[in-house]
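User: LPS glycosyltransferase, putative. Structure?
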Amino acid sequence: MPSRQHSGVEMVTAGPDIPPPVFLYYDPHPVHEKMASYLDAEMVQCETDGAFARIRAGRSHDFGNRPVILEGGVPLVEGAALKLLGSSGPVIALGADSTYHDIRNPMTGRTATSRLAHRFAQRFVDGTLAVSERIATIAAELTNEPTRVTHPFVEANRYEELRSLDPSLDGTRILCLGKYRRKNGQDVLVDALSNVGLDCTVDFVGPDTEQIEGPEAVNTHGFVSEAKLVDLFESAALMVFPAPAGAFPVATLEALCAGLPVVTTPGVGTATLVRGVHGRFVADADPTAIAVAIDWYFSLSENKREQFSTLASGYGAGFNEASGLKAFAYEYGNLLADIGYV
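Assistant: Predicted structure:
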C-alpha cells in the first residue's frame, strides 16, 4: 500500500480499488486511533443505547463498498446489523478487549444478554484483526472466518521516554496502571498486600483509581500528566497487572519498555512475554498467588533484579510505534486478501 504524510503522521493509503476503511468505535484507545489514522480511516462513533437502537444505526449506514473495522465489543451488534441491513464492504472486528474472554469464560459483572449478543454478532464478521494469539484462536472458533494477529505498541513519545529510564530496582515500590474497574483486578492487589511479607508501597494510576480504598501502603493518583507518569515508572521496582483477563495491555508493554519487571496473570495476553522473563512472574488472579509472586521478586538480590530488568527491556524493545503501525497495515492488507476483497 502506498503512503503519504498528514499532520506529521505517515498514513497508508489504499490503491484505487481499495477505499479507506470506516473505523466504528465507542471509546477508542489512543493506539487504536493511530492504527485507524495510519489507514486514513473515517472515524465514526457507534451507537451505545440498547439493542434496537444499535440495529437501527447499523441499518442506516451506507458506506458503499468500504471495509468497516469494529473496535472491540461495543460496536459488534451495530456491525452485525450493518452487514445484514446496511451497506458496506467487509466487516472486520478489531479483537482488542475482554469481549472474547467473556464469551468463552463468563466474567463477573457481565450480563448473559450482552454475552449472547456478542456471540451472535460474531456470525456476521468477515474477518478479525486480533491483538493476541489467544483472541485470534477464540475469534476463529466463533466466526470460522480469516483471522490475523497484530499486536498493539507503545506510542512513540512515551516509548523514547521509557527506554531512557532507570527503574528503582533496589526498592519495594509497585506500580499498577489502568482504569479502576473490577475487570482490571486492582482490588485483588489491595487484598494481596496483607499477605506480602515485606513492606511495600503501591501506586495506583488511572481514571477512577482515587476510589480505591486500602491500607497506608496504597497511594491513589487518578489520571496523571505524562511527566508524572514517567516519574512513577522510574520510582517503581515492579509493575503488577492483576486483571484475570486482558487482551494485550499496553500498560504492560510500557513497563517492559522501561525495563520494569511485570507480575500478571495467565489470562492476560502479554503473559507470554512476561513468562519469557521468568515463569514466576505469571500468577493466578487471586490475592494469595499475587502476594507470593511479589514476595519472591522482592526477596531477590539487586543483581538478579537487574538481570530480569534487562530481559524485560529486551522484550519491550520491539513494540515501538513505527514497527507496530507497519505490521498492522500489513496484516490488514493480508486479511482483506484472505477475505477475497482484494
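The CA atoms of residues 184 and 243 lie 4 Å apart. The chain has two domains: 3-153+321-339, 156-316.
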